[in-house]
Amino acid sequence: MTDSAAGPGRDTARARPRSTLAPPAHQLTGRPPVASRRFTSRAVERTIEGVKAQVADPDIARLFENCFPNTLDTTVDFGELDGKPDTFVITGDIDAMWLRDSSAQVWPYLPLVTEDADLRRLIAGVIHRQTRCILIDPYANAFYKGPGDSPWKDDLTDMQPELHERKWEVDSLCYPIRLAYRYWKLTADTAPFDDAWREAMGSVVATFRTQQRKNGRGPYHFERVTGWQTDTVAGGGWGNPIRPVGLIVSIFRPSDDATIFPFLVPSNHFAVVSLGQLADMSVPLGLGDTFAGECRALASEVSSALRAHAVVEHPTAGQVWAYEVDGFGNRLHMDDANVPSLLSLPYLGVCAKDDPLYVRTRGFVLSSDDPYYFQGRAARGVGGPHAGMGRIWPLGLIMQALTSTSDDEVAAMLRTLKSTDAGTGFIHDAFDKDDPTDYTRAWFAWANTLFGELILTVLEERPHLLRS
Questions:
Q1: pLDDT by residue (tens digit) across 37-52?
Q2: Which residues pair with 380 in a beta bridge?
């Protein structure tokens, strides 16, 4: 989720209007007082102390201490609903729950659920809440806890009272599968996977099939009355034309920006992985052999279509993955820092870090041939259209480190991340390539928690980079 709230130094006249919350006072200084934290996990607190003892750089240690627990400290609303755990997770300064963000925000805590029963119930509650959201509308990306007053209620689409925003993004249905699959693998707990969850998963696969658009445009359409081009949709709300070749249409990117060519390649890759995971869960969790076969068949079809239509020749980078295609042979060469991205493919389990096609694609993404790779006095990294030109996304910097095979590159990303927090001790949405004090979103839990995941990963795989 990337609804950009204006941060210090931001030209707010250029920022599209958003429904945002002001960050709590502590968010510019450190963690909230213990009594004000939304949820406390003993396992998370032990992890923080253990990491701090191993990290030599005090700035990195401070960032980790603030960022890793940020989702639990500030964004979760945990309770029960209908006798089941229920966890509503806002993104930070926007009082709504994105299927993508909520999954990513709690993802780094999953390895700790076997140590902390309360944390396990909290994440089970996220799975239950995401199930409810998908059953309300599989095409929506962001939800309220109950009926709300969305600033987008007049969008020209099929809005409902529980929706904050209704932008169809393939990854919105992939992230809940990713979260459910790893939770199930780690805990063997089947309680969250009830009849409602099975119905929701049926809706996911049906929605993917519909958005292959083999039998017409399908029911989803979206337009917004706005002066911000990427916030509305071409083609009368159905997007630019596609040839149905087996790929899945994603009218919006994970940045919540409209696609140009509606087959968004990173999201189709993510769908292949997610469908495979859903197939693995199908028999043990009561969806059955037939459903598992449907998932595998769809995954195979999308994978074959990606190879046939999204592997393209770039004038200088050679054979690479395109970012978007349309089935007619048109392609868009770029990347966007939001995940799924081309840069993030190994992180999502699509391929190995040393896969030759990925290596060439990564080289393109991290070069001046990518129109959204920015180099400035303060930093260099991937951005995207959403926050504007010249603005680097820490999500992209973190993903560059997580997908790297080089100690030097990982160390460089750590130096960049700690030097671009504008002295706040938190990770932001985007910052100016020349001036990190010009940033957006002082309270963005996904970026904070992902930074925590990066530090844990580096400690596991390259501990010498943090201990020296």
A1: 999 999 999 999 999 9
A2: 375
